Amino acid sequence: MKLLSKIIKILLLSIGFLVILILSLYGHRDIALEKLKKQYAPPPSSFLSVDGMEVHYRDEGDPRDSIPIILIHGTGSSLHTFDEWSAQLKSDFRVIRMDLPAYGLTGPFPNRDYSIDNYVNFIRQFLSARGIEKCILGGNSLGGNIAWRFTAQYPKMVDQLILIDAAGYPNRSKSVPLAFKIAQMPILRNIFTFITPRLIAKQSVENVYADKTKVTDSLVDRYFELTLREGNRQAFIDRFDAKKDTNAYQKIKSIKQKTLILWGDQDNLIPKEKAYQFHNDLQKDTLVIMKGVGHIPMEEMPDQSLKAVITFLNNQ
Q1: Cys-Cys link to 235, which of 11, 22, 108, 251 (CB 3.0-4.6 A)?
Q2: In angstroms, rounded to a whole number, what is the distance separating the alpha carbons of residues 300 and 175?
Q3: Are residues 26 and 71 in the same domain?
Q4: Angle at 113 between CA 256 and CA 83, to 5 degrees
């Protein structure tokens, strides 16, 4: 009995030491919002009160343009994913982008409702708060899903549509980012809210890039540090628990707006087969498949992907 008791004591001490070691290496406190603002919200960033949230956004270009381009990022990302596009587009267009609730500096939905319907409602409120009655609406991944759902629900508010590796159809991914996997594992997901290794952010970004050499330290730092905004880690998990409308994709056929479908042929999260489904279901579309590009063309190949967008916008 004494030997057994000694073994159990040593085992418990070892486990305790291991827990302390993991917490010291990978346990991260939330980063204060004001500190994150200094790093990620310099001018022209602004904040707008929408439904109890202070929404981080940027409005660039000619403010007199009554039909701006609205760009919506994907899961785990932020408005910064469109930095390169916006830098070039703003000379000829008004460009507005925001951090969606749960991501970036905006923080979580107060009601923790991360359904696409609630995101569509958020975009409607955001546009109303900015006095925008009509726009060119674009989105990547989750943002693409929100964009086409918004278009189907509020067709008079959307002049043209840009879908970048957009979600929406039933999908079986060829490869899933590590952060996405963890968010769906019952035990690990709870640990994720306070033990969040930077390695998870790095692997997750690399997963959606075709060319891994383009995943720089500064890029990973941005994804990782914005994840540590208060409430974002829990919101990331809540997003995967959101109610899903498995029949919503049937509304795609009702969309009449001129649409650009832009896709990376090396997208393993939402494979290019989904691009062809959009192409078959939409009434007025232009399909562009980019070779050697992953899930987020506007980050991985900004100049090449933007060229397709400008060509689309100029072909009225």
Answers
A1: 108
A2: 18
A3: no
A4: 60
